[in-house]
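Supplementary Methods, section 5.1.

A reviewer requested that the exact input to the structure prediction be made available. We therefore reproduce it here, unchanged from the version used in the analyses.
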Amino acid sequence: MLQLKNLLMIGAAGKDAGKTEFACFLIRKFKDTEKVIALKVTTIHEPDGRGQRGGEGYGDHSLLKDKYCLTEETGGPVDKDTVRMLHAGAQKVFWLQAPK
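The structure derived from this sequence is encoded token-by-token as follows.
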């Protein structure tokens, strides 16, 4: 197992498990004493264009120009997980999309 100092990975078996809320709690707790960089990883499961929640768009493999897409969050709708982490106090937030 790979072990890195000052790295925490949060995951769950499904959606709506509280991953983002827990991440935001930790970001708020440590933002004043640690440099916090957040990374949200989305695995693209379906080649037919349906995302893991059944919606159109981010589930489409053809939308990836390369093997993955990494973007830095700069703001937007406050209901997006990455924006929530930014508002919680992370210095930078990135979103990685990659096929499963």
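The two ends are 20 Å apart (CA to CA). These observations are discussed further in the main text.
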